[in-house]
User: Which sequence fits this backbone?
């Protein structure tokens, strides 16, 4: 495993060196490989570079520190608003909220039913008058 890891690290390092050389040659951050992929009959998914899991696992703490640092700087500059977290709802509040919504639903159904009855009565009256 140690040997494979060293080989993988060296390969990734060489890959990044080649990428930087291509950026310097093209004077562009983006490289377009459409023609090469067509010539070799490959899809972009076939040549996608996957970051090894061990690299993410080992660098997780560094990433977390950097993310926290950026968030702190953005908060100090006023670009990032702090999210005010509401305290979680108690069980009684949740029950009360559900009851209110259920009463409202039943009220809407009752109003719709009464409207249908009223329309039916109007039709019956109109039918009797003719």
Assistant:
């Amino acid at each position: 495993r140690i040997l494979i890891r060293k080989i993988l690290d060296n390969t990734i390092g060489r890959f990044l060196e080649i990428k930087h050389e291509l950026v310097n040659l093209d004077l562009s951050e983006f490289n377009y490989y459409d023609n090469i992929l067509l010539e070799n009959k490959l899809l972009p998914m076939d040549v996608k570079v996957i970051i090894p899991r061990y690299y993410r696992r080992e660098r997780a703490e560094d990433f977390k520190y950097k993310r926290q640092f950026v968030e702190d700087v953005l908060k100090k500059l006023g670009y990032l608003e702090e999210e005010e977290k509401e305290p979680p709802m108690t069980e009684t509040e949740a029950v009360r909220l559900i009851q209110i919504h259920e009463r409202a639903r039943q009220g809407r159904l009752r109003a719709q039913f009464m409207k249908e009855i009223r329309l039916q009565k109007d039709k019956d009256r109109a039918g009797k008058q003719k």
